[in-house]
């Protein structure tokens, strides 16, 4: 089932999934490199469907997908490489966190004592040592989330699929979990995250896949996605001592479509269709006029802005 | 090599399922059903008048209790509850993905769950049968001679074996029923009626029921009433392999269905 050259990629080839007549995702074609990839989109966009397809819990209605060159039908190899932290907040009744993880590890073929040691290690890693022998039914939302994460990483997968993994975690646990994801990414793993907290997605993602109504509307690293959106001029915020002079001079360039002076009089917001040309012109203006610049930063080169432009909606979160 | 892995996986799944049978409150009803014949046997042993404590009467009473209560009701109901819920229960509780995300073939998951179910209800009802049998005869003055000189031990072994075989056969049927139907109540009642009215069916149809083969293995026959159509009982050498092969067929069909099972909890 392995295919040469694909053994580090996640590949979707024109994958569609329909639930009866209801569209889950349609004609999704993606090639995903290792690193942290975030799935972003509103409710019903198809994020969970895409994750469940990736995790082998759903079969595509059309198209093919391979994870590290392995098809989901090859269960014995496929699931050794996949760790999935699902959004389902339910657990087998009557079991403790330790019992659940060690029992599941036994199904991977680990012996009783080896499964126990691995379960204990991963429980320590997610900070659940004290509650390990308590029944999961008595856990808080954050503890259940951490046990799900522990279960997803317990067998050392190469691809980690995480559906809303930060839900219910307190700020400290969030920071620790994000660090954990970064470490996984640095070690060459795939970390696929679906999150509705866009500023966190912005912080941790190497690339995004944006979905709307079952279709992929954008994919890639955030800068390249943003630069391809020609209908929306890129906004650049500049803090300097003479914003009015800069505003007057930058209109030499055709691609600058708007310049607004900040109300405090020490900055301006420029909208341009060609950021590279603008930066070259701005450098010349600064040098020629001896302008003191405090900061220059893109104002809408982030997931939130891209999401608003492509999908619509104005909140700080999507779901 | 794969067989070794499959056996380990079946063991691991069965162990996990057994923990759930022992720890979750949802299965309390099954324990009560298995306890029912024991309680009835105890009451009988304590309160039945001496004329009903004679060996021939006791043998007939136990045969009735086993066939009508233990076999046709307790084991049947336990198997229906446990095996129809093997996958359906996990779907309703949204926990099936824990198994489906492991590197186990779907057929191995079916076998693991089946082994756990058979171990659970087989042990429960074999124990219930054992206890009931001893309790029924405990009030008789001929207890010692019946068990140590007469056919007591042989009867006991055959009743326990039939209880275990019933768990195996009904387990296979209800595993498949649970995968074929979302609402398993109606087919379970239909099967209960089929098994209960089997005695009145034409000989050919009688062959398509579990009870037909199990009755033939029992040491004592009971009066099946005026409407019974009497047929030649199948030989154990034929009956046991037929039951085991049919069970294998039900499990193979279940494996086929689980192979294509997808997790869409909201739609289920």
Give Rg of chain A in angstroms: 23 Å
Report on the biggest sheet of chain B: none
**β-strand amount of chain A:** 25-35%
- How would you classify the quaternary structure? heterodimer
User: What is the arithmetic mean of pLDDT of chain A?
Assistant: 87
Q: How would you spell out the order of helices and strands of chain B? A: HHHHHHHHHHH
Category from helices, strands and their pairing of chain A: alpha/beta
Largest binding interface between chains? A-B, 32 and 34 residues
Q: Count the helices of chain B. How many?
A: 11
Poorly predicted runs of chain B: none
Q: Low-confidence runs of chain A (pLDDT<50, min 5 residues)?
A: 314-319
What does this structure look like?
- The complex is a heterodimer of chains A (319) and B (268).
- Chain A has helices at 47-54, 75-78, 97-107, 112-125, 141-153, 171-186, 198-204, 222-227, 243-250, 275-289, 303-310; strands at residues 10-19, 22-32, 35-40, 62-67, 82-85, 159-163, 190-194, 207-212, 215-220, 234-240, 256-261, 267-272, 293-298.
- By secondary structure, chain A is of the alpha/beta class.
- A six-stranded mixed beta sheet of chain A has the order 5-6-7-3-8-9, sandwiched between helices. Chain A has a four-stranded antiparallel beta sheet with strand order 11-12-10-13, with helices on one face.
- In chain A, helix 3 (97-107) packs across helix 4 (112-125) and helix 4 (112-125) packs across helix 5 (141-153).
- Chain A is elongated and about 75 Å long.
- The two termini of chain A are 35 Å apart.
- With 268 residues, chain B is mostly helical.
- In chain B, 74% of the residues lie in helices and 0% in strands.
- Chain B has one domain.
- In chain B, helix 1 packs across helix 5, helix 2 (28-47) packs antiparallel against helix 3 (55-92) and helix 2 (28-47) packs parallel to helix 5 (106-138).
- Chain B is built from eleven helices and no strands.
- The A-B interface holds A 19, 52, 55-59, 75-80, 82, 84, 86, 88, 90-95, 99-100, 103-104, 106-109, 151 and B 5, 8-9, 11-13, 15-16, 19-20, 22-26, 93-95, 97-106, 260, 262-265, 267.
């Amino acid at each position: 089932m392995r295919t040469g050259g694909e053994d580090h990629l996640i590949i979707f080839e024109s994958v569609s999934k329909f639930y009866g007549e209801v569209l889950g995702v349609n004609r999704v074609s993606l090639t995903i490199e290792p690193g942290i990839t975030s799935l972003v989109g509103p409710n019903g966009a198809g994020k969970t469907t895409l994750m469940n397809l990736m995790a082998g819990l759903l079969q595509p209605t059309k198209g093919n997908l391979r994870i590290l060159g392995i098809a989901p039908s090859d269960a014995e190899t496929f699931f050794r490489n996949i760790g999935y932290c699902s959004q389902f907040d339910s657990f087998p009744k009557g079991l403790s966190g330790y019992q659940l993880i060690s029992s599941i590890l036994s199904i991977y073929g680990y012996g009783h004592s080896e499964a126990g040691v691995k379960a204990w290690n991963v429980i320590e890693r997610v900070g659940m040592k004290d509650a390990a022998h308590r029944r999961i039914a008595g856990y808080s939302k954050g503890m259940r989330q951490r046990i799900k994460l522990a279960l997803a990483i317990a067998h050392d997968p190469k691809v980690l699929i995480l559906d809303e993994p930060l839900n219910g975690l307190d700020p400290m646990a969030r920071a620790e979990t994000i660090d954990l994801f970064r470490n996984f990414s640095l070690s060459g793993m795939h970390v696929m995250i679906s999150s509705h907290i866009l500023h966190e997605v912005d912080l941790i993602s190497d690339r995004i896949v944006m979905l709307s109504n079952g279709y992929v509307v954008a994919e890639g690293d955030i800068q390249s996605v943003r630069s391809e959106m020609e209908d929306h001029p890129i906004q650049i915020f500049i803090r300097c001592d003479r914003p009015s002079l800069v505003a007057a001079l930058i209109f030499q360039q055709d691609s600058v479509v708007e310049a607004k002076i900040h109300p405090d009089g020490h900055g301006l917001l420029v909208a341009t269709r060609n950021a590279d040309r603008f930066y070259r012109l701005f450098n010349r203006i600064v040098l020629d006029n001896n302008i003191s610049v405090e900061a220059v930063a893109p104002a809408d080169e982030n997931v939130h802005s891209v999401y608003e432009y492509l999908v619509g909606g104005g909140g700080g979160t999507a779901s | 090599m794969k067989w070794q892995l499959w056996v380990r996986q079946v063991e691991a799944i069965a162990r996990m399922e057994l923990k759930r049978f022992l720890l979750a409150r949802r299965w309390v009803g099954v324990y009560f059903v298995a306890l029912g014949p024991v309680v009835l046997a105890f009451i009988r042993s304590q309160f039945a008048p001496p004329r009903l404590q004679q060996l021939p009467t006791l043998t007939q009473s136990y045969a009735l209790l086993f066939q009508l209560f233990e076999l046709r009701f307790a084991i049947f109901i336990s198997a229906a509850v446990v095996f129809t819920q093997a996958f359906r229960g996990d779907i309703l509780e949204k926990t099936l993905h824990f198994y489906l995300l492991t590197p186990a073939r779907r057929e191995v998951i079916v076998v693991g769950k089946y082994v756990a179910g058979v171990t659970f209800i087989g042990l429960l009802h074999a124990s219930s049968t054992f206890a009931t049998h001893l309790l029924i005869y405990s009030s008789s003055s001929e207890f010692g001679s019946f068990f140590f000189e007469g056919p007591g031990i042989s009867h006991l072994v055959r009743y326990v074996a039939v209880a275990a075989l019933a768990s195996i056969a009904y387990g296979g049927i209800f595993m498949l029923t649970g995968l074929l139907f979302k609402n398993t109540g109606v087919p379970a009642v239909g099967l209960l009626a089929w098994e209960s009215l089997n005695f009145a069916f034409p000989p050919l149809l009688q062959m398509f029921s579990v009870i037909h083969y199990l009755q033939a293995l029992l040491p004592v026959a009971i009066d099946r009433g005026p409407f019974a159509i009497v047929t030649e009982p199948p030989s154990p050498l034929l009956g046991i392999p037929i039951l085991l092969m049919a069970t294998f067929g039900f499990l193979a069909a279940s494996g086929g269905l689980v192979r294509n099972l997808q997790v869409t909890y909201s739609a289920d």
